[in-house]
Amino acid sequence: MTDTVSRVLITGAAGNMGAMLRPLLATPGRTLRLFDIAEITDIDSATEEFVQGSVTDRAAVAAAVDGVDAILHLGGLSTEDSWANILSVNVDGTQAVFEAAVAQGVSRIVVASSNHAVGFWTHDEAGDSPLPGDAVPRPDGFYGWSKAAVEASAGCT
User: Fold this and answer.
1) Which CATH number describes the domain made up of 7-112?
2) Is 39 a catalytic residue?
C-alpha cells in the first residue's frame, strides 16, 4: 500500500515560512493549495493553486480544506496584536482549520508554533540542556498565549 500526499493545503502561504517551505514541499504529482488573506502572485501553475481567504472565515477554510490529504497550518498573526485580534485569528482561526479537517477526514495536520509559547526561562532555570518537552509554558504576551493554546488544542502538550 502506498501512502501518498498528493494535495497539501498551506495556510499562511504568503508569509515567510510559507514562502520558504513551498519549494521544499513541491514534488512531482503533488499539488500545493496556497491559502492566505494576502495575494500570492508567484504561483507555479503546474504545481500550485491559490485560494485567497482568511482563517477567520469558516466557509473559506472549509472550501480550502476540501479534497486535501494534509494541512500545513502556518496561518495567523505572527506578532503581538490586540487580544481580540489574536484570539480571533490565531485561536479561533486554528480551531476552524482543525474542525474543517475533522469534518473532511484530513488526518495529517502540521501546526507551526513559536518559542513565545514556552516564554521566559532563565538560563539557570533551563539548565545546560534544552528545555524539556514537558516544561510548563510561560507565554510572553497574547501572541505567546495563543501559540500555547494552539499547542494544547492540537494535543502537543
Assistant:
1) 3.40.50.720
2) no
